[in-house]
Amino acid sequence: MSGDVFDPEQLSRCISCGFCLPACPTYAMTGDEASSPRGRITLMRALQDGTLPPDDPTLAEQSSFCLGCRACEPVCPAGVQYGSLLEQWRVHQWRGRRRPPLARALTLVAGQRWLLRLLGLVRGAARGPAAAPPTGQLMLGCFERGLYPGVSRAARSLDPTLAVPAAQGCCGALHAHNGDLAGGERLARGLGEELPGTIVTTSGGCAAHLASVLGPQRVRELSTWLAGRPPGVELRVAGRRARVTLQDSCHLRNGLGVFAEPRALLRQVADYVELPSAATCCGAAGTYSLLRPKDSRRILDGKLDEIEAAGVDLVVAVNPGCLRQLRTGLRRRRSAVRAVHLAELLAEAATPDRP
Ligand code: SF4
Ligand code: SF4
């Protein structure tokens, strides 16, 4: 009997109604109950009460196949906190040497503060104190400062009152979602001490994780931070107003309920087109695109078809993982559509003398 894998109260909440099934991308792919939120909760219960042994292959497969997108949460009438259950499941399932080597390597890298600092310096991420007493602290993210340093520079240009301390580690979301929940909470608390006051982040996934550990009052995702500010100039493409669409960040939308704010900002500077599947995962899902590339690409392909059919110039992301996923997929197709982060697009719209 595995007894203590899950918080019993959380696990008992599911009433097996099935309302979550239509929202689940992996269930849509397979039509298999085991790949649905309800089916996975049944598996969790079987693990908890010992009906299934811990090394059961279905447990291993379904804990990995799940995107962790939390699309099952907002539609659940019983308030099941599925994201939290999945984190607990992976702590058990991926303990010790069972954790996928790639996930272990990535969490190891993200936990190295000196390496993150060096990455930020080399790649030219935003830095420096705010001119006046800071209104908030801009978080640089672990992989964002290496892959997309222009995002933090754009965010800082949109709000120069933000301080950007160079000494800041990883928020721990990567760890929490990949079998190291304790490490993820420790890193979030450490970052909370390094960035006192309000933490402003350009990553929806980091915002949700930080809010779960430090409390929502300490954390603001960029679109909520900028909400209500005066619009930039109109963004134009080929002599006309740009047509843009948004890919939601799953954890920002399903975990924090933030989806109206980025859309409102985009409507101020461009013609906004809503994708039918904007709220559905793009397949990036943290490390998912690296650990399960075939499944990730299958999910992405349908999304890219939609983006191209929408006739937009730009698709906007509010999370670095989604940005990487969309950019990679669009480049692979040699698509004319460009993927940008919300901060980059707004900074571009705020620059009236651009060519
Ligand atoms: S987190 Fe996403 S993929 Fe996993 S069960 Fe919920 S809806 Fe399905
Ligand atoms: S909607 Fe909620 S209560 Fe209903 S089956 Fe899904 S997780 Fe369980």
TrEMBL record:
Domain 4Fe-4S ferredoxin-type: 2-34, 55-80
Signal peptide extent: none
Short name of any one Pfam family annotated for the protein: Fer4_8
Gene3D superfamilies: Alpha-helical ferredoxin (1.10.1060.10)
Matching InterPro entries: 4Fe4S_Fe-S-bd, 4Fe4S_Fe_S_CS, Cys_rich_dom, Helical_ferredxn
GO MF annotation: an example: oxidoreductase activity
Keyword terms of this UniProt record: 4Fe-4S, Iron, Iron-sulfur, Metal-binding, Repeat
Protein name from the UniProt record: Glycolate oxidase iron-sulfur subunit
The organism of origin for this protein: Micromonospora echinaurantiaca
